[in-house]
Specification:
By secondary structure, this protein is an alpha+beta fold. The protein contains 7 helices and 7 strands.
Length: 232
């Protein structure tokens, strides 16, 4: 996986670009590393797509927020004597009939830092916050539903595991400096450009946090900073 930061001293504010494929590569590298050192060394391929409910708008613009859907094979599920059929969740089904399922610990540990926690989900209750991220209610409902791994039926005899992860958290993870992993910084989305139905280009700014308050009280940046803090 490439180091996304420029070589040498990290700037106070640096703009970088990601694509959905780049994020997929980053997560696959993390997964490969833990599987290689885990009890089950069978290779596992994941898929990552950007979820967007505004398919006719190719350019989302400043502050756009497009989460990632991670798809895992059924092998990622913890093996039990009886994996019940009613664990299967039709894609984006409304209601709450299905139950959550457990995935293997080493795989969960890779994804958990990027998943939505209770504080993140609670923030979506603020209408101003949703508006600032350009999120509509159906997308919020989808994020809530797939904030934990779900078993999804994709065909007559085909099931996969799906979970939605936070774009800010995963991009921040990829931007941690290898030379200074404790460095305090915040990630902001400057632009989000749709390349196709599942691929986006994310233009983000990596902003070093200063010791003193900067006076920025914009609701979007305040809440996003809180989310970035929780992501560490």
């Amino acid at each position: 996986m490439a180091n996304f930061l420029m070589k040498g001293t990290v700037k106070e504010a640096e703009q970088v670009s990601f694509t959905t494929s780049t994020v997929k590569e980053y997560l696959q590298d993390l997964l490969n590393a833990v599987i290689a050192n885990g009890p089950d060394k069978t290779p596992m391929k994941i898929d990552v797509k950007s979820l967007d409910f505004w398919m006719n708008d190719r350019r989302r613009g400043q502050g756009a927020y497009v989460p990632f859907m991670v798809t895992l094979p059924r092998d990622a599920q913890v093996k039990t004597k009886n994996n019940e059929e009613n664990d299967i969740d039709p894609i984006f089904q409304t209601g709450n009939q299905s139950r959550n399922l457990m995935i293997r610990k080493e795989i969960y540990n890779v994804l958990q830092p990027f998943m939505y926690n209770r504080n993140n989900l609670r923030a979506f209750e603020d209408s101003n916050y949703r508006r600032s991220l350009k999120l509509n209610q159906p997308m919020v409902d989808c994020i809530r539903r797939y904030s934990v791994p779900k078993l999804v039926k994709t065909g007559k005899n085909s099931e996969v595991i799906m979970v939605i992860i936070d774009p800010l958290k995963v991009i921040k993870g990829a931007l941690i400096s290898r030379d200074n992993r404790s460095e305090d910084f915040t990630v902001y989305v400057d632009d989000c450009i749709k390349l196709n139905d599942s691929q986006f280009k994310y233009v983000v700014t990596r902003q070093l946090n200063k010791s003193k308050a900067t006076g920025a009280d914009d609701i979007t940046r305040t809440i996003l900073k809180s989310i970035n803090t929780n992501a560490r």
